[in-house]
Amino acid sequence: MTYPTQKAPLYPKSHLLAASGVAALLSLALLVFPSREVEAKKSFIDLKLEYAAEQILEENTESREPTPSLAESPFGNEAAATDPANEANAQAEPAAPAVDESTKRLKVANGDTLSTLFSKAGLPSAAVHDVLASSKDAKQIAQLKVGQELVFDIDEQGQLRSLSSRISPLQSLMIEKTDSGYAFKKEQIKPDVQTRYAHGEIASSLFLAAKHAGLSHNLTMDLANIFGYDIDFALDIRQGDSFDVVYEEKIVDGRRVGTGNILAARFVNRGKTYTAVRYTGKNGTTSYYTADGSSMRKAFIRTPVDFARISSRFSNGRKHPILNKIRAHKGVDYAAPHGTPIKSSGDGKVLLAGRKGGYGNTVIIQHGNRYRTLYAHMQGFAKGVRNGAAVKQGQIIGYIGTTGLSTGPHLHYEFQVDGVHVDPLGLKLPMADPIAKSELPRFLAASRPLMARMDEERASMLALKQD
């Protein structure tokens, strides 16, 4: 079903012209006399558009002009002060702290050289040459280790003012610019020295007991050398033996950086107690003495090889392992790995440093008029050990090997008294001089507090164990 379309009513032409005139007059009035609301809205929009245009202009320019003050703000003082965006920006953008551009700290990485580090610090390649050419010692600064820190001090012109680096906890190097070039300086850092106490009980070996007690390898070797005149650490050590030690510890910046000397020690071996106190006499000579002032130092040390195993003893009826016949064994064999150092058992003069038949590489040392020692099957001789050379007690004279008639790496050691072979393990060693009577009171004044401290520390430790 279709509905007829309605047509708009027809008005007279005069009515239409009158309505158009009235609409035109109203529009003109609104343009000339706007309302307050419209006026305020128009002003606000115009101002905001103007401010946004200024902001865009500032962001697109390269000049960094300061932020407008409150008085210059397009919103006026009141608007800028109360705008929450301004407050947030003020809190979120604190003033950046000043950075010292003159100091650069660089750590050595794998593959780094002095040249690459200078480049990272922003220095020209010529600066490396100037530093290294300044002196022979300056080349030490180029001996780099991974993780080592270098501190560059650079002046306002971008030139190196100084370069420093700590190469060990107790030593640092510095290159410093002077009027005549660069000067090299090596500085020894003086540590604080404190005394420490340690106690150990032997279950299997001195090394393990010392490690468990917190002693370094060097301190353990020192302990063995101090008592090496009386105790054979290759033969005499037994389970249940014990030791007490008062020693020096070196501290830098609150950290342990090493150890110093053993000041006093006590060693109990097979139920027998040995004591040692370090003492420097008025003549400047330092040595170890027993707690009552007797010398720890004998004319000969008991064992020429540290911690070796005795593989064959002194015997008049031993069957030779290579010759396969009964032949007197006029010495003691110490088995140890190839290259183990061999020490002279006393002061003396080298009679022979060379080949000697079935002994292979051999050193023979004369000690005064009565004593002579022989060291055989050596791999080689230490530097400076030759016929006629003087050697000191404990000096390394050679290294364990298998030269001559030898089935494995070991030292064959002989000891003669007045030309007669004796068993070095059973020999009663001659004593060295004790503390001079005039110095005994001074020595005892140093010795007694150290021995008392070991007693107190030991008692305190035992009390803690019982608790």
Give the termini separation: 115 Å
Multimer state: single chain
CATH topology of the largest domain: Nuclear Transport Factor 2, Chain: A
Uncertain parts: 36-99
Helices and strands, with pairings:
Layout: H1 13-32, H2 36-60, H3 76-82, H4 84-92, E1 103-107, H5 114-120, H6 125-132, E2 149-154, E3 160-168, E4 171-178, E5 181-188, E6 192-201, H7 206-212, H8 217-226, E7 242-252, E8 255-269, E9 272-280, E10 286-289, E11 309-312, E12 315-319, E13 326-329, E14 332-335, E15 341-343, E16 348-355, E17 361-367, E18 371-381, E19 390-391, E20 396-400, E21 410-417, E22 420-422, H9 440-466
Antiparallel strand pairs: 1-2, 2-3, 3-4, 4-5, 6-7, 7-8, 8-9, 9-10, 11-14, 12-13, 14-21, 15-20, 16-17, 16-19, 17-18, 18-20, 18-21, 21-22
Q: What are the key terms here?
A:
Glucose Permease (Domain IIA); 22 strands; elongated; 3 domains; alpha+beta; ten-stranded antiparallel sheet; single chain; 9 helices; Nuclear Transport Factor 2, Chain: A; 467 residues
The gist of it:
The chain is of the alpha+beta class. It has 9 helices and 22 strands.
3D architecture notes:
The protein has 467 residues and is α+β, with helices and mostly antiparallel strands. It folds into three domains: 103-188, Nuclear Transport Factor 2, Chain: A (Roll); 191-298 and 432-467, Nuclear Transport Factor 2, Chain: A; 309-422, Glucose Permease (Domain IIA), CATH 2.70.70.10. It is built from nine helices and 22 strands. The termini are far apart.
